[in-house]
Design a protein that fits this description.
The protein is of the alpha/beta class. The protein folds into two domains: 201 residues, Rossmann fold; 93 residues, Formyl transferase, C-terminal domain (Methionyl-tRNA Fmet Formyltransferase, Chain A, domain 2, Roll), CATH 3.10.25.10. The chain has ten helices and 15 strands. The strands form three sheets. The chain has a seven-stranded mixed beta sheet. Strands 10, 11, 12, 13, 14 and 15 form a six-stranded antiparallel beta sheet that branches. A two-stranded antiparallel sheet has the order 3-4. β6, α5 and β7 form a beta-alpha-beta unit. α2 packs parallel to α7 and α6 runs antiparallel to α9.
């Protein structure tokens, strides 16, 4: 590490597991973490006990100063960040910062986003990239400005989206890719070599938050489109349909080359194969879960949850 990077005082802001590799990479690089900001503890699990965020656990283990503001717009939060005397704010999977906070450091603030901006601006870029059938994605670091996900691009790194990928596997690969990109971005800013590139708003695509209605499968669509939605929502929040009033979640599927000759949503059950008719082909469901039960491969699922040929998902 060069002296300019080591002398930099960084405030890191992040909450979920996606942010942890970036935080640990900065620490492993020898960067000076003046403080860490994360979300307040939340009740989780069946016992609804307060649990720390993934970033908080790392901060506590490393003995880092920690802030957990309830409101990012509270002037007291800006004062607390200012007191840390940051040269730079690094944001990974956090909330929207007000200008009163991200303008505090002399070098400003940058964010790591899990897409190739300006494509997939928004809260769920990984999910929507897969749902939309993209074959490539990546990470982008960009300078924060008031309009969300629109700041000047610093660095981008790309990876392929494989046919076997789901949102979980892409998430994990991008978290690791992003960690290295964050370190390289910090080095670029420390050495004065950053030249943020303006985003082309004409190429922007949205990646809004996923809601329950986005997860319900509409069977009157082509098989590949449905398969992409299933893997784009796996393992969370998970695509689903209903059968005899019961919610059935889907994690993996396979487009078959057999044409569908029955109405969309009709089940075709033969042995240990469970397929569903779409508007063009049959879609085999290979990993499923009855709500409240275990996630199972199709053969085991069918042993515990009998369905009949010709029944329908709705």
């Amino acid at each position: 590490m060069n002296a300019s990077l080591q002398a930099l005082r960084i405030v890191f802001m992040g909450t979920p597991g996606f942010a942890v590799p970036s935080l640990t990479a900065l620490l492993d690089e020898g960067c000076t973490l003046a403080g860490v900001v994360t979300a307040p503890d939340k009740p989780r699990g069946r016992g609804r006990q307060l649990s720390p965020t993934a970033v908080k656990e790392v901060a506590l283990a490393r003995g880092l100063p920690l802030l957990q503001p309830a409101s990012l717009k509270d002037p007291a939060f800006a004062d607390a960040v200012r007191a840390l005397q940051p040269d730079l704010i690094v944001v990974v999977a956090f909330r929207i910062l007000p200008p009163a906070v991200f303008t505090i450091p002399r070098l400003g603030a940058f964010n790591l986003h899990a897409s190739l901006l300006p494509r997939y601006r928004g809260a769920a870029p990984i999910n929507w990239a897969i749902i939309n059938g993209e074959t490539e994605t990546g990470v982008t670091t960009f300078m924060l400005q008031e309009q969300v996900d629109t700041g000047g691009i610093l660095l981008q790194e790309r990876i392929p989206i494989l046919p076997t990928d789901d949102a979980g596997s892409v998430h994990d690969r991008l978290a690791q890719l992003g960690a290295g990109t964050v370190v390289r971005t910090v080095r670029l800013l420390a050495e004065g070599g950053a030249a943020p590139k303006r985003q082309d708003d004409g190429l922007a695509t949205p990646a809004p938050r996923i809601f329950r209605d986005d997860c319900r499968i509409a069977w009157d669509r082509p098989a590949q489109e449905i398969a992409n939605r299933i893997r784009g929502l796996a393992p969370h929040p998970t695509a689903f349909s209903t059968h005899n009033g019961r919610v059935i979640k889907f994690y993996r599927s396979e487009v078959l080359q057999e044409p569908a000759h029955v109405p969309p949503g009709t089940l075709a059950v033969t042995g240990t194969r469970l397929a569903v008719a779409t508007t063009d082909k049959l879609l085999a469901l290979t990993e499923l879960q009855q709500e409240g039960k275990k996630r199972l491969g199709v053969a085991e699922f069918l042993r515990g949850y009998p369905v009949a040929d010709g029944e329908r998902f709705t």
